[in-house]
Batch of 2 targets.
Target 1
Amino acid sequence: MRYETVIGLEVHLQLATKTKAFCGCSTKFGQRPNSQVCPVCLGFPGSLPSLNEEAFRFAIKVALALNCRIQAIVKFDRKNYYYPDLPKNFQISQYDMPLSYNGFVDIAVDGANKRIRVKRVHMEEDAGKLMHPEGEDYSLVDYNRGGMPLLEIVTEPDMSSPREAYDYLTKLKAILEYLKVSDCDMEKGSLRCDANVSIRPEGETKLGTKVELKNMNSFKGVRNALEYEVKRQDSVLEDGGKLVQETRLWDADKGITTSMRTKEEAEDYRYFPEPDLVPFVVEKEEIERIRKTLPELPEAKAARFKAAFGLSDYDAGVLTSQVDLADYFEECVKLYPNAKTVANWLMGDVMATVNEKNIDMSELALAPAAFTGLLKMIDSKAISGKMAKEVLAEAIETRIAPEEIVQKKGLSQISDAGAIESVVQGVLKKEAKTVSDYKSGKKAAFAFLVGQVMKETKGKANPAVVNEILKKSLGE
Amino acid sequence: MKTIDKKTVEKVAHLARLKLDDKELELYSGQLASILLYISKLNEIDTANVIPTSHALATLKNVFRKDCLKRSLTPDEALENAPSKEGDFFKVPQIIEGK
Ligand SMILES: [Zn+2]
């Protein structure tokens, strides 16, 4: 039987405010354990939470950018469960009246547009971090992360392949980066993703048995975990087995998912309104005011790039997929008007280096002026395209400006006809035999002569000029 | 209104990590049932056109805090009253996996 895949995603995003969601503790990453805690985020008796205005504004920005409707009355609820990463024994979250709902993100599937519905975007606080020392019978808790402002972004089960899930995540991350409301760093855990996946016979409208996947720490991990899980579910059903609703953990090293110990009872969080926080009413004018502060988002930017610079769909899509890359591109185009050349170099050599070094565009030690300077050197034939690639790699590696590298290494290409002419004459004298071979019809001898000139000039002669002078000298 | 039975009390007690013996289960089921019965009187009121009250201070709304740093506790202060600690960490019984 043929099955179709149904995927829904749940993303947790840490908001880049200075302080936590409900207290004035710092949100800085990687600090001394339990040094960013206070009576509020440790849940001491008598302490009261109070909502961070900036976190709320960031949340509304995200909701608007994801085309969500904002709830008329926003309230918070307590999600109750007992676990040591939660000092209060409840998490302040949102249940029946989330900040926002009914949004969407569009992705491209086989050249067509596909709308992934965003069910809700709500605010909550993060939990602390647990460590399990090897071979010991206890765990250690650091509450620095506890109480950090989080957004939970939940989609409807609208994705029908791991690829679509990956594309949705990439698009979502791009939008979130444009908004500058989070550093979106999966390694630091500021962006996390869980997935729900089920399969059902093709044409069936009822959803199959849902499996929740956790523990993926990259978008590729999400895609790989989903691919594995779809195959696993398929083979269970093909063998006449039955799927169980469960949570499975992705093991990136082994490339498999394993079942988490199943709980005896269904989750029961006994939500109820958080009595320590009053409701929040966002007036229409306030929503419109925040909407006006939204930056140009990836789709709009891509459309503008196509119109203004004549870029293809593909190029505009790649260049706007990261806000840093898009900004870099625009800076370059101001300094060097051939947008297509800038795009090709950025998407080719520059991105390759950035990916290879696993850094962000913002960490690239090559100012737009230095990079476009290199492109200008190619245009003026001071260096060849091949040399430029080497210089670029070195400039990124050593943080030395391309012009300086070219000068220091004496890399400049010899385009001066007079200089090349004299080398050509020398070669022709030395290779008299080859010259007569050439004249008697051995056309291959020409390439040999070009090679000799290049050798004499240590590869620095401009090949086009060499060709031209050689032909002339040989009487063509 | 469904009254509360022993099984429900047992489940709620487990969720709240309370250990109740049979006698206590019996006692609390009865007490909770009568409390719920009393409260259920409220259901007699027609609330079809009433906005749900999520907070006792109905007139208060939009109470925010500016995103400004405040002094946190030091790890020593934070851990001062912890029943068990190790280094800068709170120490708790081993947690395997799952919540
Ligand atoms: Zn705090």
Target 2
Amino acid sequence: MVRIAHISDSHLGSSMFQLIERREDARACLKKAVDMALRHSPDILVHTGDLFDSPEPHPDDINHVLKIFKDIEDTKVIVLHGNHDIPYGYKYHHSPIRYLETVEFVMTTGDNPSSVHQYDIDGKQVDIHLISWTRKKQFQKILGDMEPESDIAVLFAHDIPVEIDELPIHYDYIGHGHSHNFKLDEDMAIGCPGSTHIIDWKRELGKKRKLIVADIDKNGTEFTTETLNDIREFKFHPGLDITGLDAQSANIKMKDWLKNLSPKKKDPPIVIVRVNGMIFAETEKGIERNSLIEFGEKHLNPLFLHIEPNWNVVGPPELDLSRPLDVKRSLEEYMEFKKDPKKELVIEELQKILGE
Amino acid sequence: MLRQLRMTDFKVFNEIDFQFSQGITAIVGPNGSGKTTILEAIEFALFRQVTRKEKTVRNFEDFIRHGRKRAIVELEFRAPVNRRFYRVTRSIHPGKTNADLYDDAGSDPIVSGPTKVDDEIVRLIGMDRHAFSTLTYVRQGEIDRLSRLPPKKRRADLYSMMGLGIYDKTEDRVQKQIRELKKRMSSVEDTKQRLESIKSHLPAPDEIASSRESLERIKDKLGESDDIVQILGVIEKVETSLQRVIDHLNSPELTNEYEEMKEEREAASYLKEILGVLPEVAESQLKPEIRSEAREIFRGIFGDRYSDLVIDEDYNVSLYDLRGHRVSLTAASGGEDVCVNFALRVAVNTALQKQAAHRIPPPGIIILDEPGAGLDTQRRKWLPMAIAGLKTVDQVLVVTHMEELRESADRIVLLTPQGKQRQPMVDVIE
Ligand SMILES: Nc1ncnc2c1ncn2[C@@H]1O[C@H](COP(=O)(O)OP(=O)(O)OP(=O)(O)O)[C@@H](O)[C@H]1O
Ligand SMILES: [Mg+2]
């Protein structure tokens, strides 16, 4: 049996809200994911790319990765080049992943978009096909040229830019990254673990991230998954509504809302409050954004409090034109609304002038 | 919306064909390789106008390739008004330009002559050149234009982008009608005055009547004579003249019709007044939509620093940072400024598209000449992705040196100068 542990998309160097603490978190989450993977004693640990958020990572991030991968024994470590790892123009030789390969900590696709390997694992011959981030056309060509020879074959790619039915069926597992949300199709044996921490809260909050462990033998593939929680706690409150309130009441309502959230003593969380509703411009002007945030921070003691204005401003409740860019229609509606006795006369005049 | 551009002897291009497709097309090449020229050819083909370095170019002769006698530009585009394809050809000759507009398949022009073609294209596109160019064109060095404009001009620009110029245009037509009526009325008044003055110089009807009676009495006394017939003839002539003048003064032309004109003029003036108010009503409806679209786009790129984008009554844009502090656009960084302007344009496009069920949809195209200036590497990657993610803009042309922008393009048109006055080599990478 061959055991593969699959993680992806660590984006070391990314930092939500530009928080330096989140850089730290990203590193800790990667460490956590690797430790979790190693507890399964896999033959292969694969990271399907975007290990770093930029092709020129901070030295702290490089050192962290070196430290993590240095101590790994008995497990082959594969890391692909993701789109964030390589500089423009598919310059794989300038990717930090390539550096990790030269110091022999990991294996990647070298200076190329892809590579093919064959190993003896547990007495069995295994084909490992790798495709780093590349253009779609190139991907299709590479995929078409790859022909497994052994009984067991796996494909790892940073991204699968083609439809599932375009993929060949001769792989026992196809693992990819790029999407930050976990997805596993056991019948098709295609898996994406999602990122190792939350990178973009808008897209990833409430979605799953998991370690995927694939056990492959002649009879097929069996999957085990384990949830990867971000080490930082996120509290997301999407339901605050200030529709119709004036500024003062809106401020009070938001303050009360914040007051009702329970503070945390240790491990300060990231708190996100989304404020909805329809308000007037006057109300918006009077919302004390900064003092609300300061109040919330004092009360909740979070790592970061984000109040997201999601409200819409409506004009004075005068009249709703059904087609604001249709002159005649708007004129009719406006005069009707004003109960203007000259309506017929004026419309007739407009029609005459427009030659209708 | 654009399908094909053909240029003959247009600036650096000798004979060239560009196919455009949906998605993002990046035009790349070194300085002077002809990137901006391609965009200028498009603008010229559509509107017989080229704006360069914020000035409208009037002398098109400069566009004729050095050493040639004329330049030709041919553009195929889909008209938003009916979603059909049209082909416009314009040629530049010393001192004049020519134009023909064809139906997609047709070989005979449906409209000919520069002005007629201009008008027809404005109709097909559903907006005039000013609206089109503020909405879709972001020129080199102009991406932050909106924030540099004085508030009044900025408001006008946004008005025009929103398509509210339609009210101004209607108002102009009403004004023209008012002027026309005024003219006609004053000519009627002149006639009336003249007639009244003639009338005042003629004897009054009762005077004529009593003269007649006097003459009758003389006739009774002295009997018929040639002298009397003579005088009677004159009196009758005066009487007829007077009657004519009176008839004319009472004619419908000078009475009822005049009254009608007066009424119409009042109606038209009233109409004009309302047309002056309506854009504000329409605008107060469109603006919130534009704002919330712009906010989404801006946060998509700057969400790690900012939480909000607000447009006030005077179209001053301000931002709120993540700490809730207000940052006016003048205080925002150069890159943030670029992004706000970009977000606003795209937002107007989207908001108009939502109104499109009721009117001609916006052109669905955005043309950007070096939009990434001032943005850092990460954000330059986001910029085209932000556009690509928008359903309402189905064609994006980006002219750029920036590598990050190229990478997110669906197609790259690569221009390589070949020296010796030869046109640049064109490679298309998909
Ligand atoms: N009538 C003409 N005939 C031939 N070449 C011309 C003519 N007029 C201008 N040019 C040349 O065309 C070039 C202008 O090209 P264009 O503005 O398209 O450059 P670009 O690719 O946008 O460059 P940049 O990256 O600097 O903006 C200039 O080098 C200019 O010398
Ligand atoms: Mg240029």
